[in-house]
Design brief:
By secondary structure, this protein is mostly helical. The chain is 72% helix and 0% strand. The termini are far apart. The chain is flat, with a radius of gyration of 14 Å.
């Protein structure tokens, strides 16, 4: 709804940041995921919010840091 102006993007992010966590977890492999599931539009709305709204960019960057930390810890724990 925010992409089409029905809802202000910042208002959307104030009440639903959880979708961005999932998006930031898949983001490094987004193109491969889209190809694998045969859906070039997968995560399109979450991607838009993460890139086109101020609050979405802030929240997504916070989540990206968490995801990177988790991936780094997993790599460190792998022999």
């Amino acid at each position: 709804m925010a992409r089409h102006g029905v809802m202000h993007g910042e208002l959307l992010m104030e009440s639903s940041g959880e979708g961005l966590l999932l998006f930031t977890r898949i983001e490094p492999w987004l193109e491969q995921y889209r190809q694998h599931v045969g859906n070039p539009l997968a995560f399109r709305n979450a991607e838009w919010v993460a890139r086109e709204t101020d609050l979405g960019r802030q929240i997504a960057e916070r989540y990206r840091k968490r995801v990177r930390a988790h991936l780094d810890a997993a790599k460190a724990a792998t022999p």
